[in-house]
Specification:
It comes from Levilactobacillus senmaizukei DSM 21775 = NBRC 103853. By secondary structure, the protein is an alpha/beta fold. It is built from 17 helices and 20 strands. Strands 4, 5, 7, 8, 9, 10, 12, 14, 15, 17 and 18 form an 11-stranded parallel β-sheet that branches. Helix 1 runs parallel beside helix 15 and helix 7 packs across helix 14.
Amino acid sequence: MKTRQQTWTRKIAAMISLAAITLPMVTTTAQASTDDLSNHPGVYGYFIDTYQQNVGQNKTPETNPVIGEMSGFAKYWANGQKLDPDMLASNVSQAATITQQRTHAEEERSYLTDVRDLRYNLISGLGPYAGAFIKNADAQTPYTSMPDQPLPLHRHYIKMNWASTTSALGPVVQLVNTTSRSKFSGTGTIKHVVQYERPYRQSTDVKPLPALSKIMAAAGHDDYDFPSGHTTAAFETGETLAYVFPERFQELITRSSEVGYDRVLAGRHSPLAVMGGRMVGTAMTAATLNDANNQETMKQAIKAAHSDALLGAKDSSASDDFADYKTNRDAYRFRMTYGFNQTGDTTQAMRVPKGAEVLLATRLPYLTDTQRRDVLFTTGMPSGYPDMDDAEGWGRLDLFSAANGYGALNDNVTVDMDASKGSFNAQDNWRNDIAGRGRLTKTGTGSLTLSGHNNFAGGLLVKGGALQLATSSAAGKGNVKVNQGSLQLTTQRVTVKGNFQNGKGGQIKLARNGHLTIKKSAKLAGTLKLTAGKVKSGSKVLTFRSRHGKFNHVSGLPKGWHVVYTKNAVKLVK
């Protein structure tokens, strides 16, 4: 039986082959200046300030922020005319390919995504916490399986509250409802302004889900495609849950993107429509979380999510469709662009929308708002992809990558972590490949891991807590200095490409069979702490071009062993 990772890898490869495109990777954008991080308004102003203008009577980009945000689609389709037939044909062709290649498991999942409450759809993103959420939020759905025969033509969906606002997780439910069930969060107005047909009505190559085929065939012709309302609601719900429960941040937004993919699988929507839904949902979530009227609900929701009703009720034996990081990353990244080429202007600088930093407030709590904006800037997608180059920058936000920390460093980035606050304040892992000319300074008491293949040039300075290096190139290209706290090697070999200095208050921690290669000079003091690992007499734990000083203290040596210092190495000798 193929694993979820193998199945997804195979499907992406097939779609890439058909479309002759390449997957986008995290961009290593040039360093952000103050001007780069400034706000760029749309013709409607700023989305977070004007989101309540998304109502039926406002039907222009100037008066409705959703229409303004989605105005890029007018390059391809406007007033019932195909302005870019090739792009629109590619959009429908991609939808056809996805429907033709769906598996039975995907059919059942996309059916349940279709018929269930839009908010209930995101519970699976909680993985081992999903059972506790269902129980302690009184969450419920009448739909548990896909029927063997198409649903009757005039079947009415069963309506019920997806979860209870008076439950133990009531504040979480209330915040989700505030975001995704607001009278300002719908896509009905823009759909009727754009009037772009569903893909299954444009081509018989797009195969409707059999269970829904009769209902889809009978839908009114004003049941339009762009943008996807289900996808909008999925990102509103998923990103709100990720805000209150950041321990599942990437898993929840991956499920949000999967809901959009499910809409394409079912034949309901085109890729461009679900890409638009992601943008609208993300902007709406940020607007809700920035709204002063919602701040108390947000605090109570975070408190409830981290009580025994959710965080304290993990079921480690439960299945988790989002347990594999690489599968999540590959899937989310593909669904950012659905394999479309960069047909627009590829030279536009990244823009970070006003208020977007709130989306990372709980996932990167030890950073300032400006730093979180910088993270969004340095992990943003390249320009030129269809739909995505809106004026404010919502389309190019890559929240999955942003949850992995910086994509590039400014001249001086200081990370101050307070372990006493717990969660990500105590321990975090930056998985991105970090570029840039800047230096990273680690302070505080928490532990930060760098697990990317980094090439930032400014070096590392450790002034408190722990900085862990999990790849051979995690230290980047610059000098490394440990004044206070600990520099820990969690992989066997790490290279420092510049000079290295361990101060009197600093500690280097590595395995007995580990190796720190210092390309230039080493100044040694403080502590060398060795951990378990097989070792041969004469093995080198540090090598360097030249050395000044010795460690003040060495711990973790096997009985009868000692350290020998040579001109170019620190050796363990029996």
